[in-house]
Amino acid sequence: MDYDRIEKIVAALNNPVRRNILFWLKDRSNFPPALPEHSDLEGVCVGYIQEKAGLSQSTISSYMNLLKQAGLVISERHGQWTFFRRDEKSIQAFLGAIGKELS
To answer: Domain 3-30+41-102 adopts which CATH fold?
Structure first.
């Protein structure tokens, strides 16, 4: 993992709400059940993330965009809904890279 990518991730994690979002996304049960028509989709609707965080739609959109640009989450659009899930492979790569850098 290159230095610029590490810096993007560190910047994205430099906010307690964004870190909470990543933690919440580890377990789908941290959110209300998906609507029946979305039950087969991975991830969590951005509206549920907004509701749990208690922040405005624009703030959550900005936060999710930062997390996505850093490679920490993956988004999928289904109709008018956007669903987010963690990018576990990218998170593990970051943890390995930062571990090497700090050891």
So the answer is: Arc Repressor Mutant, subunit A (1.10.10)
